[in-house]
Amino acid sequence: MSFEDLNLHPAIIKAINDLGYTTPTPIQQQAIPQLIQGHDVMASAQTGTGKTAAFMLPALHRIATPTKVHGRGPRILVLTPTRELALQVSDAASKYGKYLPRIKVVSILGGMSYVLQNKLLSQNVDILVATPGRLIDHIQRGRIDFSRLEMLVLDEADRMLDMGFVQDVESIASATPSSRQTLLFSATLDSTIDKIAARLLKSPKRIQVASQRTKLENIEQRLHYVDDLSHKNRLLDHLLRDQSLKQAIVFTATKRDADELADDLAAQGHGAEALHGDMSQRERTRTLTKLRNGRLRILVATDVAARGIDIADITHVINFDLPKFAEDYVHRIGRTGRAGASGVAVSFASGKDSISLKRIERFMGQRITPSVIPGMEPKFKPRIGQNEGKTQKVPHVVHKRNRSWASNEKNSFNHADSNRNHPHKFERSTGNDGKKRSFRRPGQLNSGIYAESSN
Ligand code: AMP
Questions:
Q1: Is residue 375 part of a domain?
Q2: What gap in Å lies between CA 132 and CA 168, rounded to an integer?
Q3: How far is the C-alpha of 318 from the C-alpha of 297, rounded, in Å?
Q4: What is the helix (H) or strand (E) element at residue 44, kind and residue range?
């Protein structure tokens, strides 16, 4: 099947040709015809499968025909869980729509100036890409006219639910015309997603693309058992000195750890910077731009960077701390091996991580091969049957490191625990009504993910 077979507007096909896309990906082949016919669609598709184009191309195809409805408000609304993903979607819209006359794409994200956003919203908007919390604020201030809205896209719906945005998403949907076409994309389609789909979608077509496992074949996954924080630090230092590592993302469990580890690595000359949800949008964009154009080698990030970043030169992903949710492992390691390249994903795990590790392996449907660097073997004995992996034939290089917070290993080793004493009930003003909403999901009080809310 070719893009021409999909009956997309010629201006869209032209933009796709410019980008060098020759064949639609499986999710595009399945979703685009249904969407062009006007059906609601719920699709399980992970980042990296071409899902953005799967919804953006039909969205652009729709707005290539002028609407008869008067107004300035958006005709397409895309909701995303994070600012990074929103920016990526906006970029995609501009790229795919570049030959369509006067397509106006606007992003409304938390952490950015209201003054600028008010100005953007007062003009004609075709495609609005937003994180839910900030959009709700604008809706409540009466700044958005949804009378022209034709299509609502919930991108990474599972993630939005995990982040506690379910009420916001439903409120936003209820502010849009019921005649809209609704699309839901999620890593997995489980019963929670089914429930929200039943409320927001009309007789949706269900689309499932090949499992993530096949897609990750170009990523070599390795596991290093670790004894303690200083062992992790030595292994990390060793890995970062590997010449084959062009660029890497190192994932930590908390924002503070990301900052501290980035500082420590930078102090050792590694060219590292942090990225997390406490940084202003401007800082985040600046850091990502540096990463994108190769001026930053190591990004130390929380799960805010687990999705959406698409940079071909990221050769390594290092899970300094394992993710809290198994599914985030897939998103994290998917930052490498982009655009058909091969990638390496290394995870550190201690005895305390055995449950998380099991969950990840169950989710992936495969074991992660344990590796040992000569001279840096763990004293800790992993569970039986897990230590049969290959030994890395790499020179033994131990570089002494001196991390301020490494001194109290007992307290700081398991970073995932460092949120444990906080109530994690996030409250914030919702604008004019002065009421506060809390973003708390039962059973997930300790999730670091809440700390990454885009709002
Ligand atoms: P996504 O899953 O939307 O994050 O897309 C992953 C990457 O695939 C992006 O870099 C897209 O530019 C690229 N892509 C999307 N569709 C195609 C296609 N049909 N052919 C080649 N690359 C594509």
A1: yes
A2: 6
A3: 13
A4: strand 41-44
Place of tokens 């070599």: 220
d(CA 378, CA 198): 49
Using the 3D structure, point to which of 208, 235, 262 is the last residue of a domain. 208
- The CA 12 to ligand 1 mean position distance, Å, reads 15
pLDDT in tens, the chain (455 residues): 889 999 999 999 999 999 888 889 899 999 999 999 999 999 988 777 889 999 999 999 999 998 888 889 999 999 999 888 999 999 999 999 999 988 999 999 988 889 999 999 999 999 999 999 999 999 999 999 999 999 999 999 988 987 889 999 999 999 999 999 999 999 878 888 999 999 999 999 999 876 544 457 789 999 999 999 999 999 999 999 999 999 999 999 999 999 999 999 999 999 999 999 888 888 988 999 999 999 999 999 998 877 778 788 999 999 999 998 887 898 899 898 876 678 999 999 999 998 889 888 877 778 898 999 999 999 977 654 443 333 333 332 323 333 322 222 222 223 332 332 332 222 333 333 333 333 222 222 222 222 233 32
How many residues are there in the chain? 455
- Boundaries of domain holding 102: 3-208
Task: Enumerate helices (H) and strands (E) in the chain, giving the number of each.
Answer: 16, 16
The protein residue whose alpha carbon is closest to atom 10 in ligand 1 is 310
> Which protein residue's CA is at the shortest distance from atom 18 of ligand 1?
21
Number of domains in the chain: 3
Residue 337: per-residue pLDDT: 85
Give residues (CB < 6 A) around ligand 1.
Answer: 21, 23-25, 28, 47-53, 310
From residue 283, alpha-carbon distances to 190, 262, 279, 288, 291 in Å are 35, 15, 6, 9, 12
Do both 202 and 310 map to the same domain?
Answer: no
Query: Same domain, yes or no, for 142 and 7?
Result: yes
Determine the distance separating the centroid of ligand 1 and the alpha carbon of 53, expressed in angstroms.
7
Residue corresponding to tokens 């201030």: 141
Ligand 1 centre to CA of 338 (Å) is 9
**What is d(CA 249, CA 100) in angstroms, rounded to the nearest whole number?**
36
Nearest protein CA to atom 11 of ligand 1, as residue: 50
Specify the DSSP element, H or E, that contains 136: helix 132-140
0.90 cut: is pTM over it?
no
Distance (Å) from CA 96 to ligand 1 centroid: 11
CA of 436 to the centre of ligand 1 (A): 39
